[in-house]
Amino acid sequence: MAPLFAKVLIANRGEIAVRIIRTCRELGIASAAVYSEADRESLHVLLADEAVLLGPAPAAESYLAIERIIAAARASGADAVHPGYGFLAENARLAEACAGAGLVFIGPPPAAIRSMGDKMAARRVALQMKVPVVPGTEHPLRDDAEAARAAAEIGYPIMIKAARGGGGKGMRLVRAPGELAGALRTARSEAGAAFGDAAVYVERYVEEPRHIEIQVLADGHGGIVHLGERECSIQRRHQKLVEESPSPFLDADLRRRMGEAACRVAAAAGYVNAGTVEFLVDRDRRFYFLEMNTRLQVEHPVTELVTGRDLVKEQLRIAAGEKLGFAQDDVVRHGWAIECRINAEDPAAGFIPSPGRIASLRPASGPWVRDDSGVYGGYTIPRFYDTLMAKLIVWAPDRDTAVARMARALAEYQVVGVTTTIPLLRRIMGHEDFIAGRLSTHFLDRLVESDRPPAAGRRRAVALAAAAIAAYERVGRTVPAASSATGSAWRRVVWPGWRQR
Amino acid sequence: MRFAAELGGETVFIEVTEESGRYRVDVGGEALEVDAREVGEGVWSLVVGGASHLVAVSDREGRSAVDVDGESYGIHVEEETRYIVRARGDQGATGAQVLRAPMPGKVVLIEVEAGQPVAAGDGLVVLEAMKMENEFRAQRAGRVREIRVSAGQTVNAGDVLVVIE
Question: In this structure, is residue A390 part of a structural domain?
């Protein structure tokens, strides 16, 4: 059988570009990577069949430059473009530019990207399809006065959101009228910087909400199915950190109703390809349409592991014009999958990014462990892009086993040289609320705020001994062997500056 | 060689002596016989009394992040002589809080004015780095002595943003 495409250009970087290269290779499709000047040594460039330089490090001059992506696709002779997630993945102009250049865009049609990308238009589609939405304004706010009126009408607390938002940028929680003006200012500034559009709207804030999303696949022949849910409630600043499927909160009936609602919204939007419909679910198991993401999600692997279906392959098949070839009843879900995002961030310092050189990397492996990584030992994480280094995913027959397996894998995962979210992820896996499945989007705020347990016992002594031995060896290496042990204070050792915090 | 190590606000004195690849480490009075091998850059295998520990030691800004069998510790290690010199010097410190940019980025917002009193936890500066806005807050109460940057300005790691006295 002939491959679906001869060559796919991947208009992205990092772990998702690597992920797409892998499926292409399995399907006999050549892969062309693109890269900025900061990414010559990135893993996706190393692994792809071909690599095309886009331009300078800033994304606006490389990964966000549509004309450069199209030129790279033409230069490489690709017949299709996969946008990954982020960057141009939800940009209708890239989809149109591909069509104009005779390239297949591996994603939904431009009209579907536009209607779902406009958060308020998406809310109107959901309402038309009798899918509940969180109460809020149906159009962008003109000014602060209108925002104040709308917020008073909806009732505090409210959430400010970017009209073209995503990834938590341009979002602010406002608990009282006095906080509104400041929150509007920062939300608009973030939205303008991130999306080139400072428009924001307000929504009622759902207390103790769970964030649960439904994976949808639609072909170009009217076929549409959902692949069940992903629970994404463990978030920091509205960015997901841990995801799992199924959700410990859903039963078969709620899953079926949310799945049907997701398919109705996607069908009404004229959606084709893989997409995700996000819902908030409140304490009383009422669900509200939040938005539709018109792309492959970061957390798609948990769905792959419980359904046994390669979502990138499905995307390529749909884009090539094939029928889904299976119906809703053929979607069989099996076992439990959890994903943890390993980011170059310091959770103890407000998740500040910590780019830099990875001195050593020893990823987890072993039974039912998957490491979707974009980095390697010796690689320097550039400071220009997001902080996601790798996604660690495990599968098990049931949730308890999956949590224990993830804890085991995280204990194995070692990164030397940059600060990562791994220690925090280990604490989450050991937390009684997580183990019991008591999740909400506030879980992490409380965990980060609570004090760490005091370091004690044998491991503490071993940690201190190791730190001292490492310091001893480091000092030893910088000094001529002839120097005496008592002269240590005069050795020319460069100590990093100590500063008061 | 003697070291002073700070962990969780506590200072522990450690003495390391080495003989043909084996270490004798005295950790605050507890004596350990350690067979230590660096098996990767910053990755150590420690066999201590028959127990095997895999330990990762990362150095960041003068602190070591030490990862032992899935548990993480932040440890500041320095030679004891340096610790003693520094501990003496600190007694004359003014107690000013100097907020420095921890990484390169763009100043999005300055939330305070010079001369303004601030409480612990008050927002000072919002810095955009790696696609996220990060708010930096006062560590403790004081008064804004100096603002060294303006909104829209690009800063490098280590640049002083705000001084609180």
Answer: yes
Alpha helices in B1-157 (DSSP H): 80-90
Q: Are residues A420 and A326 in the same domain?
A: yes
Q: Answer whether residue A84 shows pLDDT above 50.
A: yes
Q: What is the share, in percent, of chain A residues with pLDDT greater than 90?
A: 75
Instruction: Report chain A's mean pLDDT, rounded to a whole number.
Output: 90
ipTM, two decimals: 0.71
Query: What single string gives the DSSP state of each residue in A371-436?
Result: EEES--TTPEEPSSS--EEEEEEEEESSHHHHHHHHHHHHHH-EEESS--SHHHHHHHHT-HHHHT
Interface contact A489-B48, CB threshold 8 A: no
pLDDT at site B93: 46
Nearest-by-CA chain A residue for B156: A383
Chain A residues within an 8 Å CB radius of B27: 461, 464-465, 468
| pLDDT greater than 60 at residue A29 | yes
3-state SS, residue A218? strand
CATH of domain B2-90: 3.30.700.30
Report the distance separating Cα A341 and Cα A389, nearest Å.
Answer: 8
List the single range of A22-31, B51-60, B86-95, B148-157 with lowest mean pLDDT. Answer: B86-95
pLDDT score, position B133: 75
- CATH number of the structural domain spanning residue A171: 3.30.1490.20
Its domain, for residue A141, covers 135-204
Rounded to two decimals, what is the model's pTM?
0.81
Last residue of a domain, one of A153, A186, A204: A204
CATH number assigned to the domain comprising residue A102: 3.40.50.20
Q: Do A240 and A299 form a contact (C-beta atoms < 8 A)?
A: yes
CB spacing of A463 vs B41 below 8 angstroms: no
Q: In the numeric block, which tokens belong to residue A380?
A: 């320097």
| Residues A489, A491, A492: CA angle, nearest 5 degrees | 125
Q: Does A189 touch chain B (CB under 8 A)?
A: yes
Cβ-contact A495, B78 below 8 angstroms: yes
Do A297 and A406 fall within a single domain?
yes
Decide if domain B97-164 falls under CATH 2.40.50.100.
yes
For the stretch A105-157, pLDDT in tens is 999 999 999 999 988 899 999 999 999 998 888 788 889 999 999 999 998 99
Q: Do A471 and B77 touch (CB under 8 A)?
A: yes
Q: A61 to chain B nearest CA, in Å?
A: 15
In a domain, A117, yes or no: no
Taking a contact as any Cβ pair under 8 Å apart, which residues of chain A between 217 and 256 contact chain B? 237
Of B61, B100, B108, the CB nearest to A496: B61
A324/A371 same-domain check = yes
Confirm whether A130 is domain-assigned: no
Number of domains observed in the structure of chain A: 3
Residue A491 pLDDT greater than 80, yes or no: no
Q: Which residues contact A54 (CB under 8 A, 6 or more apart)?
A: A34, A35, A36, A61, A62, A63, A65, A68, A69, A72
Task: Spell out the domain ranges in chain B.
Answer: 2-90, 97-164
Q: Are residues A35 and A153 in the same domain?
A: no
